[in-house]
Amino acid sequence: MQNKNTGENKNNKNKNYILWYAITAFILIYIFSTTKNFITTQEISYSAFIEMIKTNQVERVVISSSEIDIIPKENSERNNGKLLYTGNVGDDNLVELLIENDIEFTAKTVQNNFMTEFILTWVVAPVICFFLLRFFFSKMGGRMGGSSMMKFGKSNAKVYREKDIKITFDDVAGQDEAKESLKEIIDYLNHSEKYVEIGAKLPKGALLVGPPGTGKTLLAKAVAGEANVPFLSISGSNFVEMFAGMGAAKVRDLFQEAEKNAPCIIFIDEIDSIGKSRDSQLQTNDEREQTLNQLLTQMDGFDSTKAIVILGATNRPEILDKALLRPGRFDRRIIVDRPDLKGRIDILKVHAKDVKLGEDVNLEEIAKSTPGAVGADLANMVNEAALRAVKQGRNVVMQEDLREAVEVIIAGKEKKDRILSPKEKRIVAFHEVGHALVAALLERADPVHKITIVPRTMGALGYTMQLPEEEKYLVSKEELINQIMVMLGGRSAEEVVFNVITTGASNDIERATKTARSIVTLYGMTEKFDMMALESVQNRYLDGRAVRECSEQTSTMIDEEVLKIIKTCHENTKKLLEENRDLLDKIAEYLLEKETIFGDEFMDFVCEKYPELRNKKSKENKEEKQELVEE
Ligand code: ADP
Ligand code: MG
Ligand code: ZN
């Protein structure tokens, strides 16, 4: 959809270019023709002309009503290669004189140039002037914040309209709650009279809220497809234009178009770009405010018996203007959140439909290994896998393609040509086994799925992949602490084995610190601060950045508290690894030899020493659960 819009934008730009080309060409031709005149012709006085006739220097004469063109003889002293001309003074004796001197003469009957000249001066030039002025003013208007005087004509609202949308709810996997809420809207679009009859106020707008790539745009289209009504869509950023007042005009046009097409859906994507709260800005933006006001008025104003539903999509609902969210406008909020395990399986199935799958493909496994991935990621993974299959010369996608695609998206492509020195390789191996071993030995850490020391393009020299056995929505403090210990396991192993520390742990450290900070500031899990909120999360659906909500002094104490957690975890991790040094060595040597080992092989080593761990994190256990999911 976005593509189409930009396409139209381009079209419009092209039009502008054509205009500019025309103007430049015109000016060039004009300059050229005048200078050419100037170079090739020369004016002389009438008396000089008479003199020339009398001294027999004239070859030929062309008489027009205003001008006489003189072609001098070759030997004439006035012959300098130029055409001579003089004004026609209406001399009655001229003809006689010409006949007397035997000079050929003609009269110009039709003014060849008359029509073109007329058109140029009275049509083309004014049109060009008009465009120039218009361009100039609208630029000024934009800069001055614009009054309505600066508006010209109709807006070129680029409404992207689609009549028969083929997308239905079947194409949107998961998101069952969102679909449920949208079903009502579909019913309303199809049977609006039912609602009018009973006197129910019809829903006007709904806001689709969620992280990027979860299928908001897709859902909006699917609503149109299910209801089988036209879909008018525009992106919020399209409203905010260089020309002041254009945004508002676009909103007007959009609603006019909608009334013509009712029942229909208006979809405003990325609505936050116009719907930003008006009071939160340091700088006011007249254009956006005008546009927003227009939108608010239109939403109140349009004929509410006409079945028009406005859907908006955003990933920053918290910055929207309150006026936009009040009842009667976007009063419904439909959360389109990251898919859970089942949702991910369904999304993979939807996208795998168009791809030839090999027999060994197990989409559940892939879904399990991608917690946190959104629909767009999963669609991308399936495609990556298909690309890889082609590259490998196969005509079906195998499980290994999918696995690799997941890793490519998580960690970047394998970079086999990066050569690590044997010593570095050893360090990396021990580092990764450190992570894995801590994960295996701790009660509440996710089981290890894969350990590899094959470098990846995104910078990782190796990595350990853990897979949660089940999706967790609540995480206990103990689990968080265990997570931190696993993250610190890499560096701790380096310390225990080599007694050196390297730069390889920077990402681990960053993540561990973030988790520790959340324990203190967000989850109220420390004794010191009890249940006090010290930070608040902004942009929940984007980066989830936390903003400090406390004084400087408290902030210092927070840092101390975070440090305490990290230090304790580090100590404990080191102790744990020291106690299991034998395992660490054994597995690291094996990893150095194999480069990549999977969870089962790894657990075989661990269970030799701790047989009781077998049941807790065993493969059979996992398979049982997988079957449950399949049902
Ligand atoms: P958003 O608007 O929320 O940022 P989109 O609707 O543009 O995300 O989704 C981008 C792409 O990701 C879609 O075109 C689709 O291929 C895929 N996708 C996202 N969510 C889903 C889903 N729930 N089911 C199927 N495909 C999905
Ligand atoms: Mg979108
Ligand atoms: Zn690490």
Automatic annotation (TrEMBL):
AAA+ ATPase domain segment(s): 202-340
Record-listed ATP binding positions: G210, P211, P212, G213, T214, G215, K216, T217
UniProt EC number: 3.4.24.-
GO cellular component terms attached to this protein's record: plasma membrane
Database matches in Gene3D superfamilies: 1.10.8.60, 3.30.720.210, P-loop containing nucleotide triphosphate hydrolases, Peptidase M41
Pfam families given in the database record: AAA, AAA_lid_3, FtsH_ext, Peptidase_M41
Cofactor(s), by name: Zn(2+)
Cofactor comment: Binds 1 zinc ion per subunit.
Family: In the C-terminal section; belongs to the peptidase M41 family.
Subunit structure: Homohexamer.
Protein's UniProt name: ATP-dependent zinc metalloprotease FtsH
Organism: Clostridium isatidis
Taxonomic lineage from the root: Bacteria, Bacillati, Bacillota, Clostridia, Eubacteriales
